[in-house]
Amino acid sequence: MKGILLTRLAAALLLFDFCQLSIGINVSVMMPLDLVSNSGQLNSPSQVLLQLQQLKSGGVDGIMTDVWWGIVERSGPKQYNFSAYVQLAQLVQQAGLQMQCVMSFHQCGTNVGDACYVPLPPWVIAVGNQNPAIWYTDSQGGIDQEYISLGADNQTLFYGRTPLQMYADYMAAFASAMGPYMGSVINQVQVGLGPSGELRYPSYQLQDNKWAYCGIGEFQCYDAFMLKDLAISASAINHPEWGHGGPDNAGTYNSQPSQTGFFSDNGGDNYASPYGQFFIGWYSQRLITHGQNILTSAVSIFRPLGVSVAAKVSGIHWWYNTDSHAAEVTAGYFNTDNNDAYLQLARMFATVGVAFDFTALEMTDSQNSCGSAPQELVKQTILAAHNAGIEYAGENALPICSPCYQGGFDEIYTESTQYGAIGQFTFLRLDSSLLQGSNWQMFTAFVAHRHAAR
What we know:
Elements: H1 2-15, E1 26-30, H2 45-57, E2 62-68, H3 69-72, H4 83-95, E3 98-104, H5 122-130, E4 135-137, E5 143-148, H6 163-177, E6 186-191, H7 224-236, H8 274-302, E7 308-313, H9 326-330, H10 341-352, E8 355-358, H11 374-388, E9 392-395, H12 406-417, E10 424-427, H13 437-451
Parallel strand pairs: 1-2, 1-10, 2-3, 3-6, 6-7, 7-8, 8-9, 9-10
Antiparallel strand pairs: 4-5
Helix pairs in contact: 1-11, 2-4, 6-8, 8-10, 10-11
């Protein structure tokens, strides 16, 4: 397997034009998740301004903030309230910073690091209560309300609109409300495409203690709409028997690959079999299509305003160093059996015209039993973006400033410059401790180091 990965990296390097290397890496800082209250008010605006001014004094280029669907459109369909974000843009402009805005079409509160609870709009949840098929569903019938299932993308179930139409309407309303700041203060919009704002399935769920690190997760294809699509796809290749659901030997949320038949290397109906190739191919392609449809709308809305668009891919590093890449596969990334999931995603991003955002840049490879290899994973994604000719942006997956430790900063620098400076780095996350004492000194040194990167 390592030989295959090295071959992939070498091939990508041959295609990478080193004349395109950028100089300097812009640094943004993620704002707190609860910056805006669930009632739609900007929390402590005077304090926010002071924090923004301090970030500017430390050389930071901008900030990133979630624009929560569950807050903005909570009162009813097409009843938007972006006033808190308009106020924030005013403060960002006053501080002399730029602003990346995340179209957060997901729930906050059930993922690692979630410090608040922001559900989807109540009228969306009400539709789901009447028709649970709009939610991602596992093989036991458990539903996940973090994000509407991509199976429902074209279903007119939401007061005359489909989810794709709702997302497009929301983005257009945001562009209209933020008009004076688009292309000047607001320089990029990152479009949420799944749980945690990432283009993936909710295969590893913390809610109800379903999943714990480093389980492989479960396939999320058992809602009525996805099952219907699977059946049609299987019949189209004359294998209707493959269309009744996901593999029945893929384990549970907390299984390890070797404990399953599907993710083992023992042949049969495993991931490398004709059935396995069909199912994983269908599952991953539906995710790519979902992302492409939403991103196409986003680019048509934001690019004419001088605002770039980005999409985030999840850093699923556990079981990366195994042949099956089980945890990636259940999340929708077909990164096994000579397939390069991240190059497939990067090529779709290139077709649409968006940047590739990835996380886990602070992590190092582990020698534990979970096959964790974040450094190799980051390399693969950087080279995929370079191969596709698109900008690459990075983030740290977990906090590294409680207190700050130099090793985390050093690893970010190494990962973000190993093939030339990446386009952007966003630091997770702003809190009061970051702005004080040795934390602030280390962080501002980190920012200066990024600006000098080549």
